[in-house]
Fold this protein.
Amino acid sequence: MTWLDLPESTGFGITNLPYGVFVTDSSAAPRTGVAIGDQVLDLAGLTGDPVHATGSLNAFLAQGPESWAALRSMIAAWLTDPAHRERVTPHLLPMDSVTLRMPFEVADYVDFYSSRDHAENLGRMFRPGSPALTPNWKHLPIGYHGRSGTVQVSGTPVTRPQGQYLADGTPAFGPSRRLDIEAEVGFVVGVPSVLGTPVPVHDFSSYVFGVCLVNDWSARDLQAWEYVPLGPFLGKSFLTSVSPWVVPLAALSEARVKPPVRDEPLLPYLDDSDAPWGLDLSLEVRLNGEVVSRPPFRGMYWTAAQQLAHLTVNGASLRTGDLFASGTVSGPARDERGSLIELSWDGAEPLELPDGTTRTFLQDGDEITITATAPAADGSHLSFGHVTGTIRPTALP
């Protein structure tokens, strides 16, 4: 219980307490805040700790799990014990009076490909007559390194990318004609690791602080022409959007579930049988305000703990602020697909919207919003906020 009067609809209750960075006006210095109901708790003002006045979560994230747990416990006490009310109240700001910024400085960015339904859908589209999954898919979490400098906070405009693509079998240059979304879940690294030292699956929570929402925008025509043999490049690097709130792993104890049964035996470094980190998250994708998909995260074949173990098993080191994303979240039903290329089946089955229009891929002016919820410790559901982006025309040279 809390002495605050919390609206039930926000999903930012006392069992959530996500972290973000905010400003009160254009001239104010950004600082750390925690969402509680429809308000933001100003940690810099309340605690006087300079780590919360840096304009980024990174310095706090680097302090590690003991500090994360201690501060979370203190915040819960401040917001539940009426004895703290007089001290805390001046540092509670209306959510609609602040502007949310990028919550952390991204060190490295890795995107995975961990939904079996998504991978099989694309395999059926592009490799008809062949197995839907590539031979390695059930043996390791496939991923690629992205461009950290183009990871931006929700609300950043999505300028339609341009590049090379095939037009009637001939290379052409111009704005992407097949601009797409990828509804994903991101994991934020707090504690760095030592170069040459892998991170085991059971140490996942010792390194990863929390979870955010990700839209890894994709130019499917650019990607299709460039990706052989090295993989995604310009078709993915123009923008990746993240939500402004990072939900701590500590808030997700009730959301932890076992991952799906694996069809192939796992190599020892990926064996998560004693440390399962499947998460029961329910995503929702809206196109111009209309729900077009509800992807379920609990069915992801590879978990974030396995992704982190695979990412570091060759000795690659972690840095504070590293972001790795799940890859497109899709379920078995048509209305559970997390990308337009699946929802429209590569353009062959246009998606019908309530206003009578159809979409195969995104048009200029379209707005995409991704939200998610998860079971909370008090029996309610907690929110991850949202990640939103609006498409604007290509910026011609």
In short: The first helix runs from residue 43 to 47.
